[in-house]
Design goal:
Blueprint (H helix, E strand, L loop, with lengths): L4 E6 L4 E14 L2 E6 L5 E5 L2 E7 L4 E6 L2 E6 L2 E6 L6 E3 L2
Length: 92
């Protein structure tokens, strides 16, 4: 089992962020969803809320998203959003 996720975050303009992550947390239509390495494949609609990524280096990134969808397959997470805010970062 892999110890990290490969994450691609895309909006209407193009790729916003791409890299390795320990964890992804997203506002799924039926509640907040957390993704770790080894997660089963899933396709989920996103609602408005905060998308958070903990990078492989431990940095916390966060964007406010206005909806979209999230796909997980073979430790690859693809997040396609309608619109999002500039990222906020934290080293916690």
């Amino acid at each position: 089992m892999a110890s990290s996720l490969e994450v691609d975050l895309v909006d209407a303009v193009g790729k916003v962020w791409s890299g390795k992550a320990r964890q992804v947390s997203a506002p799924a239509a039926d509640g907040q969803i957390g993704i770790l390495a080894g997660h089963t494949p899933i396709l989920s609609v996103l609602r408005e809320g905060e998308l958070r990524v903990q990078t492989a280096e431990g940095e916390q990134l966060a964007w406010h998203v206005d909806g979209g969808f999230l796909s997980v397959d073979s430790d690859t997470v693809t997040v396609v959003v309608d619109a999002l805010s500039d990222p906020t970062t934290s080293d916690h």
